[in-house]
Specification:
By secondary structure, the protein is α+β, with helices and mostly antiparallel strands. The protein has 2 domains: about 120 residues, Alpha-Beta Plaits, CATH 3.30.70; about 50 residues, SH3 type barrels (Roll), CATH 2.30.30. The protein is built from 4 helices and 14 strands. It has a 5-stranded antiparallel sheet with strand order 13-12-11-10-14, with no helix packed on it.
């Protein structure tokens, strides 16, 4: 029939169409570099406040000097932190070790030169001129801390200080911090209730320092 449409996909000889995801996966597989057995995490010093800039500089040098087969990861250890200020919750990214950056690399003269001479790098952590790698358990602990789903809550008060309750049944009451439980993110506050001090257990984000 003249008005019958042809199915352009019915040709048995047609090449299979590769999805974008499959193409990206294939490309990523090709780009995987096998790490040498001596690959370790090292710690480098940088100027405080310039960690992200140094990270960017080092990544650029790794690419321009084709050191991808010796330097594999550059990480500025950070974690999310929640703070309650003026009744508003703010989530910020806090540097776990200000002035320090982690580098996963196979150390030799070439890789050492690339890292050591990156603008903003003041040196390796080590003994004398010899960089000392982190132990595997130390590196894993830092990475695991960065990947934690629950953000850390910033505590801006201490035992004995006056605080105001900003959420819950005791909202707008004031009291004195009696105990702080960092593991449970809970604080016990002594509140003057009906003429006597009553201990009230609250979440860190339910109180703010006066």
């Amino acid at each position: 029939m003249g008005n019958e449409k042809k199915d352009v996909l019915s040709n048995d000889n047609a090449a299979p169409i590769e999805s974008d995801a499959e193409a990206e996966a294939a490309q990523a597989e090709e780009e995987v570099v096998e790490k040498p057995e001596d690959t370790k995490w090292y710690v480098i010093h940088s100027y405080a406040g310039y960690e992200k800039k140094v990270e960017k500089n080092l990544m650029h040098r790794i690419e321009s000097m084709q050191m991808q087969n010796k330097i594999f990861n550059v990480v500025v250890p950070t974690e999310e932190e929640v703070e309650l200020k003026d009744g508003v919750r703010r989530t910020t990214e806090r540097r776990i070790f200000p002035g320090y950056i982690l580098v996963e690399m196979s150390l030799d003269e070439d890789s050492w030169y690339v890292v050591r001479n990156t603008p903003g790098v003041t040196g390796f952590v080590g003994s004398g001129n010899k960089p000392i790698p982190l132990r595997d358990d130390e590196a894993n602990k830092i990475i695991k801390r960065m990947e934690a789903e629950a953000p850390k809550i910033k505590v801006n008060f201490k035992v004995g200080q006056k605080v105001r309750i900003v959420e819950g049944p005791f909202e707008d009451f004031s009291g004195e911090v009696d105990d702080i439980d960092l593991d449970r993110a809970r604080v016990r506050v002594l509140v003057n209730f009906f003429g006597r001090e009553t201990p009230v257990e609250l979440d860190f984000l339910q109180v703010e320092r006066i």
